[in-house]
Amino acid sequence: MSAFAQRVIAWQRAHGRHDLPWQASRDPYRIWLSEVMLQQTQVATVIPYYQRFLAAFPDVASLAAAPAEQVLALWSGLGYYSRARHLHRAANEVMTRFGGSMPTDPEALASLPGIGRSTAAAIAVFSVGERAAILDGNVKRVFLRHGAIDGDPGSGAVLAQLWALAQARLPASDLPAYTQGLMDLGATVCTRSRPACGRCPLAVDCRALASARPTDWPQPRRRPAAPRRDLPLLLIRRGDAVLLQRRPERGIWGGLWCPPVCDRPPASAAEAIAAAADLLVALGEADAGAACAGGATVRALTVFEHALTHFRLVIAPWQVDLPVASAPAATGAAALIDCRWWPLRDCADAALPVPARRLLAGLAPDASSPGEP
Ligand code: SF4
Question: Annotated catalytic, 372?
Answer without folding.
Answer: no
